[in-house]
Design brief:
Layout lengths: L1 E2 L4 E3 L6 E3 L4 E2 L3 E2 L2 E2 L1 E2 L2
Length: 39
């Protein structure tokens, strides 16, 4: 899954949020789980 530039992702376990500043391939992970694209 490609990480989308300017999109916000969050961790369902701890609630950490981030905004992607450099798009690329791979999976964003936090607390050992994939982060979820916030709508």
């Amino acid at each position: 899954m490609a990480n989308q530039l300017g999109k916000r992702y969050y961790c369902p376990k701890c609630g950490t949020e981030l905004i992607v500043t450099r798009a690329g391939e791979g999976t964003l992970k936090c607390c050992g789980q994939p982060m979820i694209l916030k709508s």
